[in-house]
Amino acid sequence: MSYKTKLKFLFLILICFIAYHGLMWFCITKQVFDRNDGMMIGDLGRLSYKINSYFPRKTAVTLPRTHYILNSDFQMRQVDVITIGDSFSNGGGGGLNPYY
């Protein structure tokens, strides 16, 4: 194959790649990530891409946010939930009390 044929083939693949991802954005992904109504889609809904499984909800915080460091000065008391690491409790899913 000549370089012109290879170049045409490369451009065809590039155009198909861009068209596929544009179609995915405008048909599916935009409904999840580009919302202007103040509603959030949860973590599992964002992972699935199943439109019927989306349950949009407003983000609301009704609980006090507390932070305890477990060291020698920590007095033993009842703690409802312990999360280790900030990736588990960054609240990216939205909804009611996303940090808990």
Features:
100 residues; mainly alpha; two-stranded antiparallel sheet; 2 helices; 2 strands
Description:
The chain is built from 2 helices and 2 strands, in the order αβαβ. The longest helix is centred in the first third of the chain and has 31 residues. The protein has a two-stranded antiparallel ribbon with strand order 1-2. Helices cover 37% and strands 4% of the residues. The model has no long low-confidence stretch (mean pLDDT 77). It has one domain. By secondary structure, it is mostly helical.
Which helices and strands, and how do they pair?
Layout: H1 3-33, E1 39-40, H2 43-48, E2 57-58
Antiparallel strand pairs: 1-2
Please mark out the parts with pLDDT under 50 across 5 or more consecutive residues, or reply none.
none
- Across the major sheet, the strand order is 1-2
Number of domains: 1
The helicity comes to 25-40%
> Largest beta sheet, briefly?
2 strands, antiparallel
**Gap between N and C termini, in Å?**
60 Å
Q: What sort of overall outline do the alpha carbons produce when their principal axes are compared? A: elongated
Structural class label: mainly alpha
User: With helices defined by DSSP (H or I, 4 residues minimum), what is the helix count?
Assistant: 2
- Integer average pLDDT: 77
Strand content: under 5%
> What is the β-strand count?
2
Order of helices and strands: HEHE
Rg to the nearest angstrom? 23 Å
In short:
The chain is mostly helical and 100 residues long.
